[in-house]
């Protein structure tokens, strides 16, 4: 009787890992969702900033999430089902200092080695006027070096360049007035704000917060 020779065991299956359009991606499901992960969703890149697994008494489990667009910073809510699959994208974030605009490009500098880079200004969309010289920003890029987003600080201080005068009868509790900052940003400010005043602005909404010291 011949001795049976055990067959070698097959290696355990590995998670799907591939490159898609220059991006390193991993196939993921609802169970893989976690805060901070970046996924391909609706033809764009989104970061998971909040999630909640829900197991109803009847029916399949699902997941409620809040996703922040890497490029625009806008937040949306989405519900994932157990059957949903998507690509997780590896994103690298680095701090840069904004120097100036050069045509259609923004010139940023690495404060450690002083290397400069040109980034397409359209990545900021309508938030470009929130940039001020020497502002520290966070640049998000894929593994192959492609820049996909620029994150601004939560608030920024700018100087009012132009606005209507504060007329008698106007009050701070009113609807406010239109003003323009040094960068050309248009926003509503209280009636008491005057040209030359420094104000604090929420970069997520582009709205006035308060006068800055």
Automatic annotation (TrEMBL):
Main location per the UniProt record: cytoplasm
Record keywords, A-Z: Cytoplasm, Elongation factor, Protein biosynthesis
Alphabetized InterPro entries for the sequence: Elong-fact-P_C, NA-bd_OB-fold, Rib_uL2_dom2, Transl_elong_fac_P/YeiP, Transl_elong_KOW-like, Transl_elong_P/YeiP_cen, Transl_elong_P/YeiP_CS, Transl_elongation_fac_P
Species of origin: Cloacimonas acidaminovorans (strain Evry)
SMART domains in the cross-refs: EFP (SM01185), Elong-fact-P_C (SM00841)
PROSITE patterns attached to this UniProt entry: EFP (PS01275)
Involved pathway(s): Protein biosynthesis; polypeptide chain elongation
Keyword Protein biosynthesis annotated: yes
Location(s) in or outside the cell: Cytoplasm
Function of the molecule: Involved in peptide bond synthesis. Stimulates efficient translation and peptide-bond synthesis on native or reconstituted 70S ribosomes in vitro. Probably functions indirectly by altering the affinity of the ribosome for aminoacyl-tRNA, thus increasing their reactivity as acceptors for peptidyl transferase.
Protein name according to UniProt: Elongation factor P
Signal peptide interval: none
GO cellular component: cytosol
SUPFAM superfamilies: Nucleic acid-binding proteins, Translation proteins SH3-like domain
Region (Disordered) residue spans: 1-22
HAMAP family: EF_P
Biological processes annotated in GO: peptide biosynthetic process
GO MF, any single term: translation elongation factor activity
Protein family membership: Belongs to the elongation factor P family.
Domain Translation elongation factor P/YeiP central stretches: 93-148
Domain Elongation factor P C-terminal, residue spans: 156-211
NCBIfam families: efp, PRK00529.1
């Amino acid at each position: 009787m011949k001795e049976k020779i055990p067959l070698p065991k097959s290696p355990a299956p590995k998670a799907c890992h591939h490159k898609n359009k220059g991006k390193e991606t991993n196939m993921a499901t609802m169970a893989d969702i976690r805060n901070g992960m970046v996924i391909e969703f609706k033809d764009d890149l989104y970061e998971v900033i909040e999630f909640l697994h829900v197991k109803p008494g009847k029916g399949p489990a699902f997941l409620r999430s809040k996703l922040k667009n890497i490029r625009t910073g806008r937040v949306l809510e989405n519900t994932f089902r157990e059957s949903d699959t998507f690509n997780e994208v590896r994103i690298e974030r680095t701090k840069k200092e904004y120097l100036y605009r050069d045509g259609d490009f923004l010139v940023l500098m690495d404060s450690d080695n002083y290397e400069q880079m040109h980034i397409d200004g359209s990545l900021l969309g309508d938030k470009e006027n929130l940039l001020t010289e020497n502002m520290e920003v966070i640049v998000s890029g894929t593994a192959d070096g492609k820049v996909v987003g620029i994150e601004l600080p939560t608030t920024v201080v700018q100087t009012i360049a132009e606005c209507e005068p504060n007329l008698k009868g106007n009050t701070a509790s009113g609807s406010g007035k239109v003003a323009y900052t040094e960068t050309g940003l248009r926003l509503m400010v209280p009636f008491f704000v005057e040209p030359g005043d420094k104000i604090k602005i929420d970069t997520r909404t582009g709205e006035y917060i308060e006068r800055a010291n």
